[in-house]
């Protein structure tokens, strides 16, 4: 049996449009209602025929929903929740896909104090944005982390888990604060490093823009992919996961200083030992199949 029969997705960019496509593919009988604040996006979503209905207001899109999935930038979650508050059915489950969880949970609970709110985060994405960037298999073989607050109804968590598992995601349950620390290490600070190195390279007066493009065949090219990620989304992630990001940045700064000293004083052992350890990390990720864009978690889809 399907966990939900009337799903509303608000925010039809990369993630929202991927969810819409995955719902169509894996749950074709679900009634799918889609809304985006941007009229051009709504028009495109209608052209792409991603849902059954594309109302012009957020309120109208949730009137008979049993699941409302918020797929807007983290900084817009509170405003969207406030916009649907009057029209949300009492038994609907509200979830989201935001990359930071503590701030989103607080914003959703403030705007929707009586609703069942179960935040989530599919750990899957690309550097692209908008309704054309989405694809149905984005979540297949990827983790989706749910961060239910204390006292969240277990039945609601079970239904949301079933929703993501239908897309082939592996669902994990985590405390929101712990999520934010883990993701600061594995996603947020790595993006900041990519933004920094690409920014530094393009600022260097001795190196021209054309040389940056010409010689970016190797590692730098991988950084440029990450540094092409959506500016609004990432501005909001850093402003809404301040504490954890600053804590990890402090650690990173200390480690960089240690490396600076090793290079200055010719301490080859320190460099060699670190690089040996990091090579082992990469190899264990590859062995676990996590470098594969769609590892098989042993489930039939
Ligand atoms: N891009 C990724 O790799 C990735 C991965 C996992 C989670 N996320 C999270 O998913 C969310 C969406 O990211 P995305 O990459 O799909 O962004 P996106 O820029 O592709 O799409 C966001 C959409 O939200 C719409 N929007 C903005 N404010 C709105 C509002 N107030 N009401 C209705 N619609 C509004 C925009 O018009 C846009 O169409 C973010 O919270 C992000 O942190 C992103
Ligand atoms: O592969 C990418 O382009 C991503 O950045 C995806 C990525 C990540 O850091 O892993 C980015 C943000 C998310 O919240 C989840 C996934």
From TrEMBL:
Biological process per Gene Ontology, one example term: tyrosine biosynthetic process
SUPFAM superfamilies with a match to the protein in the record: 6-phosphogluconate dehydrogenase C-terminal domain-like, NAD(P)-binding Rossmann-fold domains
UniProt cross-references to Pfam families, sorted A to Z: PDH_C, PDH_N
Transmembrane segments: none
Keyword DNA-binding found: no
Catalytic activity: prephenate + NAD(+) = 3-(4-hydroxyphenyl)pyruvate + CO2 + NADH
GO molecular function terms attached to this record: NAD+ binding; prephenate dehydrogenase (NAD+) activity; prephenate dehydrogenase (NADP+) activity
Residue ranges occupied by any Prephenate/arogenate dehydrogenase domain in the UniProt entry: 5-293
InterPro entries, alphabetized: 6-PGluconate_DH-like_C_sf, NAD(P)-bd_dom_sf, PDH_C, PDH_N, Preph/Arog_dehydrog, Prephen_DH
EC code(s) of this entry: 1.3.1.12
Alphabetized Gene3D superfamilies for the sequence: 6-phosphogluconate dehydrogenase C-terminal like domain (1.10.3660.10), NAD(P)-binding Rossmann-like Domain (3.40.50.720)
Family per record: Belongs to the prephenate/arogenate dehydrogenase family.
NCBIfam families, sorted: PRK07502.1
Name of the protein this chain belongs to: prephenate dehydrogenase
